[in-house]
Design brief:
alpha+beta; 4 strands
Length: 102
């Protein structure tokens, strides 16, 4: 990944209307990461600085999405994975608590 010195990330603090409550709960469960829009791409990362510096995605948590629909699909797949994996009990518990708030 190349350095992105001229990129100006815009932090997204609220998902667009129409997102499913399951996707919103999954987004809130992953609270160690933040969502940014950079040059038309959504970036969900735990270190925007490292991402912008071009750090390899092997060394940071960063996923890129071409659209909000692709991000929502990824969130729903993540939630399904947590529910299938018995080792993800803490994630399922956090996920369930966000669903209870809805």
């Amino acid at each position: 990944m190349a350095t992105k010195p001229n990129s100006h990330p815009y932090k997204i603090t609220q998902l667009p209307e129409g997102f499913s409550c399951l996707a919103i709960a999954a987004w809130k469960t992953l609270d160690d990461r933040e969502l940014f829009e950079i040059d038309g791409t959504l970036v969900f990362t735990d270190s925007i600085e490292s991402y912008l510096e071009g750090t390899s995605l092997d060394h940071i948590c960063a996923d890129e999405f071409p659209s909000f629909a692709a991000f929502e699909k990824w969130l729903l797949a993540a939630a399904a994975d947590w529910l299938r994996d018995e080792h993800c009990a803490p994630m399922v518990e956090a996920f369930s608590s966000f669903l209870a708030l809805r």
